[in-house]
Amino acid sequence: MIKALVIVPYEGLLEMMKDISQEIEDIELHIELGNLYEGVAIAKNAENEGYHVVISRGGTASMIQEAVSIPVIDIQVSGYDVLRILTLVKGFSGKAAIVGFSNITQGAATICKLLDLDVKTLTITRDNEVKEKLTALKKQGYGVVIGDVITMQAAKQLGMTGVLITSGKEAIMDALEETRRSYRLFSRLQQDIALMQTILDSNEQAIGVFNQAAEMTYGNARFHSDFHWLQLDDATDVKKLMQETILTNTKQVKTLYINNELWKITTCPINGEAALFFEKAHSNQTTVQSEHGKQNAIELHTPPSRTPISGKSQATQKVLDQINRYGKRDEPVWISGEQGNGKELVAHSIYLKRKASDELLITLHCDMISAEQLKELMKEGFFQKYANGVIFLKHIDNLNAYMQKELLSVLQDENEQKPQWLVSSTDNMDKKIKNGDFHRALYQLLARSQIQIPPLRERREDIEDLVHVFISDLHPKYGNEVVGIRDDALEQLVHYDWPGNVAQLKHVMEQLFLEAQSYYIEKAEVDIVFKRLEHQARWNDALSYIDISGTLEEIEKEVIAKVLEDEGMNQSRAAKRLGINRSTLWRKLK
C-alpha cells in the first residue's frame, strides 16, 4: 500500500480528493489543507511519519519539493482546467491576465496562444512577487486576474477580480498514476541504495565523499570509525588533494601522513565532488613521520604522473636518450643537477620505462628522514619488503655519515633481494667525497649510470617549449582564456638566468597566467613579475647578512634597519611594510 500525504491549497480540491480516495484501493490518502508555507510546514514531517510521497499543487508543490527528500507529485494544471477558466472569463468585461508559478502559467500561456486569446501571462518565482505584479497590472487597466490561491487572495486585497484555476478530476487521476510510477521507481532506488550501503560499510577501506566547500556528504562505516575526527580545514594536505581532484576532474593517488600514520589516498571526481579512499600504506608507519611535519619522509606512487620532459636543446635530447637506455636496465641511476631542474621527473620517467603501472615507486626524502626512522625501517625489513619496486633516494647527499653506512650495508648484503635504486643529488658530489662528507663506496655502488641535468641558463632553447607546456597544463587547473605569449615577452623569459631553474620558470608562468589581462601574456606583465623577483632577491640577500646570534631585540633592530635601507630610509613605507605604525618603529629603533 502506498501511503501518500495530500496537501491541497483550497477547500474545493480537498473535497474532490476525499471523494476520489473512496474510489482507489492501492493508495492510502491523508488529506490536509495548506497553502504555500503552511503546506511546507505540514510536509516537513512527512518522511518521519512514514509517508512514501507527497501530493500537492502549484506553488505549494514547488516549495515542498525544496523542503523534503521523498518524491513530490504535482497535480498539474491540465488543458481542460485552463479551457474551463478561460471560457468562464470570456463573460467578464475588461482585460484579463494569468499570474502564477511556472507550473500554472506555462500550459495556460500555450493555450492562449493557440486560441489567439488576448490574455497576458506573467510567471513568478517567489510568493512575494504577486502583489507587485498585480499592482502593476491594475495600473495598466487590468481588472481580472487568473491564477492559484495566492493570486486570487492578492487580487481581492487590491480590489480586482480573482479567478482560481481549479483542478478537475482528470488532473487528479493523472497525479495518482504518477504517484504509482514514482513509488515503484523510488522503492527500487531505495533497495539499491541499501545494498550499496551494505557493500560500502563492509569495505575495509575508509571512504569519504566531500564537496567543493570541503564538507563531507558521505562516509562509510570504516570512515566514521577511523576518521570521525577529520576536519579538512585542519588537514590541509588532504583538502588540497581533494580540491585538485575536483578542479582537474582526474583520479589521483597520493600517500600522506595523517594522525601518526601513513595512508595511501586514492581520489576520484564524482559530479563536482571528490570520493576519497583511505588505506594504510605499510605496517610500521609510525617510523616515517617527517620532522618538518608538512611533508612525508616516504611517498608511495602507483604510478607517478606521466609528465613528458620538454625541450629541443642538445642537452635535453641527451637526457631523453639516457632515460631510454637506462630504462631498459635494472642497475642504479644517479641523477644530478641544480635545485628545481627536474631530477624527480627524470626519476619518474625511468621508473615508467622499467615497471608496470601496478608496481610501486617509493620516494625516500633523504633531507627529511631521521637516523632513528631509517634504523626502524631497516629493522622491519622495509627495503626487502619492497624488493619488487623502485626506490628513489631523493637528495641522497643530505644523509649523515651514520645513515650512509646503514644504506651501504643494505646494498652490500648479498643474501637479501633488493629493489631497484634511483638517486638524486646536487652537482658537487666530487667535492663532498673528497672532503669526506659522502661515502665513496656508496657513491660508486649507486652511480654506475649517471644523468647530469644542465641548468636552464645553459639550455635556453628549451624555454619556449617549456612555456607552452606550462600554459597548456595551467588551463585545466584555472581555466582562463590565455592561449599564448607575445614574442617580446618570450624573449625576456629566454634571456633571464633562472637561478631556480625549471621550477622557478613554472612558478613565474603560473603568476603570469593568473595575472594576464588578455589572450596573450604581454611584455609589460613579464616586467612586473621580474621586478618582484628582483625585489625578493635583494631582500633575501639583505637578510642573509643579519646576525642571528644576538638577542631577539637585537635581531629585530637589524631587520628594521634592513627594511629602512630597502625603503630608502622612508619611515612611513618601512612601518607599513613591517605592519607597525611610525611611533612603534621609532620606539624600537631607540
Automatic annotation (TrEMBL):
Gene Ontology terms for molecular function: ATP binding; phosphorelay response regulator activity; sequence-specific DNA binding
Superkingdom, natural source: Bacteria
GO biological process entries: regulation of DNA-templated transcription
Keywords, in A-Z order: ATP-binding, Nucleotide-binding, Transcription, Transcription regulation
SUPFAM superfamilies: Homeodomain-like (SSF46689), P-loop containing nucleoside triphosphate hydrolases (SSF52540), PrpR receptor domain-like (SSF159800)
A Pfam family assignment: AAA_lid_14
PROSITE patterns attached to this UniProt entry: SIGMA54_INTERACT_4
Sigma-54 factor interaction domain residues: 309-514
Cross-referenced PANTHER family: TRANSCRIPTIONAL REGULATORY PROTEIN (PTHR32071)
Name of the protein described by the UniProt record: Sigma-54-dependent Fis family transcriptional regulator
Organism: Oceanobacillus profundus
